[in-house]
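ok trying this again, last paste got cut off
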Amino acid sequence: MATTSDIRKGLCIRYNNDIYKIVEFLHVKPGKGPAFVRTKLKSVTSGKVLDNTFSAGHKIEDVRVETRSYQFLYSDGETYHFMNTDDYNQIALQESALDSPELLKEGEVVTIMFNTEDNMPLVVEMPASVILEVTQTEPGVKGNTATNATKPATVETGARINVPLFINEGDRIRIDTEKGAYMERAKE
C-alpha cells in the first residue's frame, strides 16, 4: 500500500476495480484546509481518462509493474505487433494501449509495462521524442515570418503536425511524443 506522497507520473494504481496509470498530478496545499493531490488517471484497459482528487495521506493500492524493451514490427488495423528485444517473443496489443500510435514507426523501440501478478501488458511507453521524415507540406511563403508562423505537415507515419515555415518535404524532424508537437530539425 502506498500513500498520496508516493504519487508520481507513470505510477500504476488499482482504483474502482480497474488499473489506472497516473498521467498528471499536482500536490495542492491551500492556505485553509487540508492538502490534497489532484490527478489525471488513464485506464490501461479502456483508455478512458478521468480526473480525481485524493486527500493527503489517502492510501492507494499500487500495482507492481515490470518494464521490458520491445521493438515495433507492424500494425494491421487496430492491432500492433511488438517483438521483445531480449528473447524475440512477439506480442500483439490493441491501439488503445498506446498513447500516440500515429507517431510509431516500424523498428522503433518502446518500453512496455507488465503487471507482475498476471504478466499482462498494461501500457506502452513511447520514447520522449521520435525522428520522422516530412512527406508532404506546403512551401513556406517568403516574408511571412514576422511571428511564430506554422504550417501543417504530414510525416512518414501519416500523422499531421504543425511545423515552422522553414521545414520542407524530405526534412527529418524531432517530435515530442507526449504533446505530438514539433521540437526541432533533426541533426543528421
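PB: full thing came through this time. The chain has no helices and 16 strands.
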